[in-house]
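Work package 3, deliverable 3.1, input record:
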Amino acid sequence: MATRELTLTGSFTALGGRARGTSDELFEGIRFVGSCVRSAASLPRSARNLSWRSLFMQVRFTAVDAMPIIAGLALLIGALETVGTIVFPEFEMGLIYLLMVAVLVVRPWGLFGKPLKIKALSERNLGMESQEISPVHYSSLPWLWVLPVALLLIFPAVAGRYYQYLLTHIFIAALMAVAFNLLLGTTGLLSFGQAAFFGVGAYTVGLLLTKTGAGTMPALGLSILTSAATAAVIGFFCVRLSGVHFAMLTLAFGQLIFAIAFKWYSFTGGDNGIQGIPVREISLAGIASLDIGSTKAMYYFVLVVVGLSVECLRRIRSSPFGATLKSIRENAQRASYLGVNVPLYQWAAFVVAGAFTGLAGGLYALMEKSISPDIIHWTKSAEPVLMTIIGGIYTFAGPAVGAVVYIVLNSYLVAWTEKWALVLGMILLVLVLALPGGVVGFVNEKARRTFGKLGWIRKWSFSKSAAS
Amino acid sequence: MDTQMVILEVRGIVKSFGGLRALQDVSFSVGAGEIRAVIGPNGAGKSTLFNVMTGLLPPDSGEVAFEGKRITGLPPHRIIRKGIGRSFQITNIFPRMSVFENVQVALFSHQKKSRNPFVPARKFTGISEEALAILEQVGLAGKYDASASVLSHGDQKRLEIAISLASRPKLLMLDEPTAGMSRYESRETVTLLRKISREQGLTLVFTEHDMDIVFGISEKIMVLQQGVVIADGTPAEIKANPEVRKAYLGEEIVS
């Protein structure tokens, strides 16, 4: 067991991640993702697949004793690709991910690795990162939401079309990130395949609107269903694993879906994607109709849909179901000793997150009016991870704030410098290192220190949250 | 004792880890409402026995019956639903949740509310009151809004007992409930456990190193040594058992 952990963390170090053998698997996973993103960001786009493949080999297969196995695997993968190219030219790319899925499902500890023994209870490190939840429940202060919502509503009156477009983009990313955080922050599952559900949602809307005469709302509704169904299938396999293995399996499934969208020209348009998606008027109960073709109308439409969805996710988080997910994050074994069927709840969270991510994808297809397989690529899956970490994992608003920071930075840096990826990476690194609890976590902590002394917030919010 | 209803029946449990035989043909039964200690030196197999009984480890052979129904082979969450609570040797709580939430989430699960994703948790006022009542019972009500991770060790152990009580078990299995506590804290915890057992007719099965506690509250004691039951009886019988004295208790009891 020790060997395996060492080699795993060893490969993280090689990738530029910071290794710490004893820490919790989840945080290992986050660091791992960080290093993936960093290594990907530093490579030119054409080489990403290459880096991905070497990464995949390193992490999946070097578990025990490396060199001969790597050589053997390189052969296996090479053979698979050759056979794939000849027999299924359309699906050559997907085979490698299919192999990865198969390996993770059947032998999650690696083809040649040995199973990790279940950690004994006594080895549990409960004191891990002592990021406590701020005992002040801001969510129970409803007026805190009034000002931002009012500002968003009057925003198009004062800002130009570019900014409306940018903000619409942020709304969609924020929904994806908030939905993702139902998994990471609330349930403690690091999914690295969220782009798959985003893509399924986007392609559902794109295909329905271009190939059929479906209305906008039915298409959007179906995007929720198709992505939820996809998440239900993928989640079924993933929740059996934990920590890094869970992340890797979601990643593999995500790439599998990417490969399908990328290669299946006749249906998805392959790497050309789908252009000129017609956005039809929305009929309101057959009486009036709503045209969301303009940037401004789209802004309001997305704002309303995202607003409702986020409120829905907030309710889920503060419900008994959400509390149960939190208990699974904190201590899955103890949760099962409360009578909780842990994998079932993890699966349910996975499906809910997938459904809302799919809705975000559907909105994206409507907004952009064209989609390409790029939106399903694994580098897209890293975005909600980054946004959430920037904004704060253990906060509800964190991922949304992270989405603002990430997209604003991204769009300004792209306009400002050619080396935007490098600068962005550096800024994000500094942010994550300086604010380990995320932007919102930091603000919460400051607010707690400042206002907590006054006592009134404590008293007020607790009289509502607990005693009542 | 004979007239008492048997709540837990353990028959011929064998469990090996590789070459090590952790449990060898362990059998015993526990009557309803009884306070039963399982003692033995380190490595005697006490924790393994608890893990087998609560479904964490499958036994190689033998079976466990609770209220006459076989529970061997069921996963922990199903066993717990039948009315068996468990606390762990190592503090096993939900650290980054408040003390209140720790008990609240246990109540949600027990009352089958965990699946409700629509109503805010704080709207379940009945459960909130119950959670505060349980915290009152274990003496943690004053700290309900603290993060569980900042509690003292003794308080965390008490919180764990509170979490276990929230499942309204008929049988509570406690693995060294006073481990790491100060003498004062242990005495308080023991008093608490006895009080709860009496008031609610709760059956307690616990392991413990402190012989004062064991002989102070147990009605029956079982002694394990290297996976074998070497004695099973009332405290007086155990004190008088020469084999126990030789193997485990040494001079402590004699004096």
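The beta strands of chain B are 6-17, 20-31, 35-39, 61-66, 69-70, 84-87, 171-175, 203-207, 220-225, 228-233.
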